[in-house]
Design goal:
mainly beta, eight-stranded antiparallel beta sheet, six-stranded antiparallel beta sheet, globular, GH-type_carb-bd, Aldose_1/G6P_1-epimerase
Length: 299
Amino acid sequence: MIDDLLPMTNVFAIALKQKQYKTYILSDETANSTLEVVPERGGIATSWLVEGKEILYLDAERFANPDLTVRGGIPILFPICSNLPDNTYTYKGVQHKLKQHGFARDLPWRIGEQVTEGCAALTLILDSSDKTLAVYPFDFQLAFTYQIKGNSLEIFQRYTNLSAEPMPFSSGLHPYFLATDKSKLRFEIPGMQYRDQNTHQKGYFTGVFDPMLDEIDVSFDELTGLAATVTDAAQGLRLTLSYNSSYGKLVFWMVKGKDFYCLEPWTAPRNALNTGEHLIYLQPGATCEMLVRMTANFI
C-alpha cells in the first residue's frame, strides 16, 4: 500500500543505434516519449514520439540521400534563415557565397554532454572549420542541447563568437510537423498580420490556412507573444511552440499534397546578412543563449 502512495519516477535513458547514420535515442520510458537525433546529418532531430505517437514528419527518401537537404525533422538554420539573392552576401566589401538556410543543417556535429538524471538530454556541438570559414569568415562554436521530459521537447542553444570581431548571424529552427488532414488544423499565432514571402503582399490572419493552395509561405514579422498553438482535430493533438524573445519572427510553410506543415521561429528575415535587419551582432568572446520549447498534448 505504501508503494501505491509514492509519486511515479520517470525513467530516462539515451541509447545509440546504428542505422544509416548513428542515431541517438533519448527516452522518457514512463511517458512513452522518445526523440531521435542524428549528429552527423546536421545535428537533426528526425523523430519525436509522445505517448508513442509521432509528432514530426520525415521524408525518408531524401534523408537517406546525403546529397539532398533533409525535408523533415527539425533542421537547424545558421548563420542565415532562408536564402540570399544569388546566394551572395557582402561583408567588408568582399562577396561571399552562402546557400539557403546556411550550413549548420548539412555538417556533422560532435557529441557533448549526455544527461539521464531528471530528464534525457544530449548536447551537440558544431565548431567553425576551414569549410565554414570559406563561406562565413568567423570562428564560432554552437552547442545545442535536446532535452525531453514527459510531453515536452526543449532545444537550448548557445552561440559563441570565437573571432576577434563582432559576428553577424541569424538563426532558426525549421520543424516539420506531421499532419495527415490539414483541413483539420487551427492555429493560434501571436500576430494579426503576415507577409507573403513570394508576393510580398500583406494579409490578415484568420486562424486557418487553405490546404488546397499549392504552397503557403508567409512570415509573421510583428509578434505579440512568445508562443503559438496548433490544434489538429484529426489527430486529437494540441501542439504548443514557445520561444524566447530572440525569436522575432514565425514563418509558416505548407505544400499541397505533403503531410506536413512547418512553423519556424527565426531571429531575422531572409537576406538579413545583407540588409542588417534584426541581425544579431555577437561581440568577440561573447555567448548568447536561446530556447525553443515544444509541448504535445493529446486531447
